[in-house]
């Protein structure tokens, strides 16, 4: 099947590669000529393990191509995926300007029946808007053929996007005609995953609801960790016991410094904004968002309680991306940590395998080092903010000899407290049973 994917960001590129792997002919389209030039040389504009190799493979097979010619892509394909960004507006709502622009262009350029699929994360009712925009543009051209709109939300995990795209746990398809249903079934016949067919509006809500629930699960555990600190209990053991209950499960139960990235913060905010528009209060989701907003500040107070003033101290931050195996620093907790350290006149060293160039643009005053050991020399304290395997596997005995003071603050509960304390570190995790007033 001939498929066009409009937008070559994280979702668009990964989606294109997955469909090419299932032997569809995919043309990915973007107005950014520099990005298209890179992709045509098999160079990704972002970091994702394993994706570049597949990109080169399917470009070589002829299943995948890239262009900045939108008209060519629309004319060539019967199925058009919209995978452009939907960033947050100042009021927290999803900015649909890119989606609406693409819908308008589709209506201006399409010359026969098409299935238009929304892959971007959009609020409930966006499918109706897209259809109205395309239909209006067709009327201006005195054309009367039909268009089917489909909502097909993505559930990709950054760092695992390729696996998730090729081996989805489920495929959600919101459509309203048998023709569109058959087209989508053909597209996904090699996915080997259960397919849930819903209305367009239901599919749009499913995406937001899934991310909001996972964000709430994270914030619940982080809130509980604060209580564990006060009661002398260990959140790691508590969540281990919770996760053994099949109704709860162990995933997303690790206490830490909060969630970040391009999805959870944006999608929870957008869902809360949608609720306000409908005059509905979502107190549980609002509380989850509030906990996440304050989690880093709570952790920094814990650090100050242990080591005193930050002023003049050299603090080494290990990890900058919001999670391992990605270069994404959007809404990363590390940014809040850096901001608070600089405000308190600390000298900040940092190391991250993939995220330093992004953060350097925001905080040029931070000292970025090419290796973690260089970043750790002379440190008065270490803050582990992202649990990269490279960082966890450091020779911590060697590190102990590099630092000036042995303060180790584990913002991800990723290291073994007993092992670190046996090496002589003053180790502090999150919610692991040390009581104190902070």
Overall 3D form = elongated
The structural class is alpha/beta
The amount of helix comes to: 40-55%
Taking the sheet with the most strands, its summary is: 6 strands, parallel
Low-confidence stretches: none
Number of helices: 18
Count of beta strands: 14
Approximately how much beta-strand content do the residues carry?
Answer: 5-15%
Spatial order of the strands forming the largest sheet = 3-2-1-4-5-6
Amino-to-carboxy terminus distance:
60 Å
Walkthrough of the structure:
With 438 residues, this protein is of the alpha/beta class. It is 46% helix and 13% strand. Strands 3-2-1-4-5-6 form a six-stranded parallel sheet, with helices on both faces. A six-stranded parallel sheet has the order 11-10-9-12-13-14. α9 runs parallel beside α12 (283-307).
Feature tags:
single chain; 438 residues; alpha/beta; six-stranded parallel β-sheet; 18 helices; 46% helix; 13% strand; elongated
Care to give the gist of this entry?
The protein is of the alpha/beta class. It contains 18 helices and 14 strands. It starts with a strand and ends in a 10-residue tail after the last strand.
Which helices and strands occur, and which strands form pairs?
Elements: E1 2-6, H1 10-21, E2 25-29, H2 33-39, H3 51-61, E3 64-67, H4 70-76, E4 79-82, H5 97-109, E5 114-118, H6 126-140, E6 147-151, H7 161-166, E7 171-174, H8 178-187, E8 195-198, H9 200-231, H10 235-243, H11 264-277, H12 283-307, E9 314-318, H13 333-343, E10 347-351, H14 356-362, E11 367-368, H15 372-376, E12 381-384, H16 389-392, H17 396-402, E13 407-410, H18 417-422, E14 426-428
